[in-house]
Amino acid sequence: MRTSQDFLRVGTTVIFIGFIILLLGTVLAIIQHPANSQIGGLIMIGPIPIVFGSSPEITTNMLGLGLIISILYLFLWKTKR
Predict the structure, then answer these.
(1) For residue 8, which of 16, 31, 42, 58 sits 20 to 30 Å off, Cα-Cα?
(2) What are the tens digits of pLDDT across the range 7-32?
(3) Helices (H), 1-81
(4) pTM to 2 decimals?
(5) β partners of residue 7
(6) Alpha-carbon distance 13 to 7, whole Å?
């Protein structure tokens, strides 16, 4: 019979492998794309979006996506109560 320690080890290992795959994918994408490519990102901390980008257009797109996700999050949180 499996114990909770076994499940903890498996879960931690899966998360660690996921981070490694994500890191390798990012590195390979940066290596394979030309120098003039644009990149942007969105980090959600609760309903608060943090955006970054290599150009104003990408940053604006990420901000729009962050606002849509924030509104959806707040809507779903409000309907749950």
Answers:
(1) 42
(2) 899 999 999 999 999 889 888 877 88
(3) 4-32, 56-80
(4) 0.58
(5) none
(6) 10
